[in-house]
Amino acid sequence: MKPIIAIIGAGAVGCYYGGRLAEHGNDVHFLFRSGYDAAQSRGLIVRSLDGDFTIPPDRLNAHTHPSQMPKADLVIVTLKTTANDQYQPLIAPLLHDQTVILTLQNGLGNEARLAELFGRERILGGLAFVCINRLPDGTIHHLDHGTVKIGQFHGPLRPITTQIADWFSASKVPCQILPDLLYGRWEKLVWNVPFNGLGAVMSKTTDQLIATPQGRALVKSLMMEIIQTAATQGVKLPPEIADLNIAQTRSMGAYRTSMQIDKQENRPLETESILHQPLAAAQAAGIATPYLKVLYDMASLD
Amino acid sequence: MKPIIAIIGAGAVGCYYGGRLAEHGNDVHFLFRSGYDAAQSRGLIVRSLDGDFTIPPDRLNAHTHPSQMPKADLVIVTLKTTANDQYQPLIAPLLHDQTVILTLQNGLGNEARLAELFGRERILGGLAFVCINRLPDGTIHHLDHGTVKIGQFHGPLRPITTQIADWFSASKVPCQILPDLLYGRWEKLVWNVPFNGLGAVMSKTTDQLIATPQGRALVKSLMMEIIQTAATQGVKLPPEIADLNIAQTRSMGAYRTSMQIDKQENRPLETESILHQPLAAAQAAGIATPYLKVLYDMASLD
Questions:
Q1: pLDDT tens digits for A102-122?
Q2: Is B264 on the interface with A (CB under 8 A)?
Q3: Is the pTM for the entire model greater than 0.95?
Q4: Is the CB of residue A158 less than 8 Å from the CB of residue A178?
Q5: How large is the ipTM?
Q6: How far is A216 from chain B (nearest CA, A)?
Q7: Smallest Cβ distance to A300: which of B214, B294, B297?
């Protein structure tokens, strides 16, 4: 039997991964917060470097309220972290005893909060390595990458985790299982903190941030602070990943990060999960991260 | 006899102060870098909260090259500091034995460079406390304030300094003589560093920067670092001037600083004189100024 999958927060990331899973024939239900009308009239249109596809309106299970949705085997949370205060009302109605919750959200603290609310055994965390935007007409534009890495918040590897990885892999989404979710989270922060943070505060795309030696030095200063902070949390990231991340970012071209887009569109920023949680970890550990501190202050200005 | 006054760099500040001096009947010559054609055809049009005035084309001594200009009794330098490598060719042709050079430029290091080139005895520094923009049609828009504070770079007060203050005062420009020019420079940096620096890097007007408690805290952090750095240079600024500066900035409304405008118009920024010189002083003195460091790095990105 095909699993029932719920996408909570059908933005760019939710629509892309949910769309891939639906295209492969899974029973996927999308909770839209914006973009519902476009999805209802046009369906879900995905332009992807891995192949375009469309889920037509009559096959798209688009919803605006969780009470309309069936209980799910897998709930994939792709809300902005600025909406995390909605976890309880949006997710609770979808749960049965065996439901697994996978958060693909950015930054730190999301799994811990979900575990508090719904029990740690069912919580997975995932990292979406993907360049993706939603265009004004609702079209999902998948520009680059696409791998998802998932890991359990707690306990030894369970069969359901492997199964979920298989669902993704079978749907043209490369998926890896992370033996250490926290390592993955910090590893991704090494990229997210400079590119999302500086991108939002300075209104610069990734390529503009690393176009000059000064820009690369600034980005690297932030990366090294994250690597140092991760070490205080028992996560030993090799320092070489700073240069490696910068080199890989060059291949992405002129990419607007989600935080830069949020800033330009006057939406709340994911400052708490991407900047403040790492800063709080550094401060609790007593290490100085001046670049992160100033960046956080700037991002918190509005 | 009326003094001959040369304005080197007839931008917003040069046109305003030179215009005031010319309107009062002084023999003022303007070296334009841009805006020459508009000035030749329309004259110098000033809209000012202290009273509008126009210097018509036939009474405006507009030039594009210093070789066209007479030797001057007073050279007022209002170049962007990004053009300081032009001091020698632009100023040398205008000097006689007694010529005084007054720089109204921003930041640190300008008087010292002029003194190296032309002798320290004739150098005055000045601070323009003024909100002023040049509109696209060349009109000078004087929005607020207007006081000039001038001081000698070297030696005891000389009569010519007092005389220059009188020339300004007689021309509707309030003018004070600074007993300690360095004090004045650092005092002004307390304002310039956060509002020019953050304004440029974050593309925010003064009122946006101080609209929230977080914004005011960020601005104040930078101000306190400047006050601490000034102390290492023998300049004891009272810490209360941070809050005082913020309070006074509220009265200015939505002001775009010159550095923000330069950034938006893709012109070089006065990063060296406004941010780097104070940072270099802090580093030489061995004190940590993380906000200034990160701000400087961000401003230097392009």
A1: 999 999 999 999 999 999 999
A2: no
A3: no
A4: no
A5: 0.80
A6: 8
A7: B214
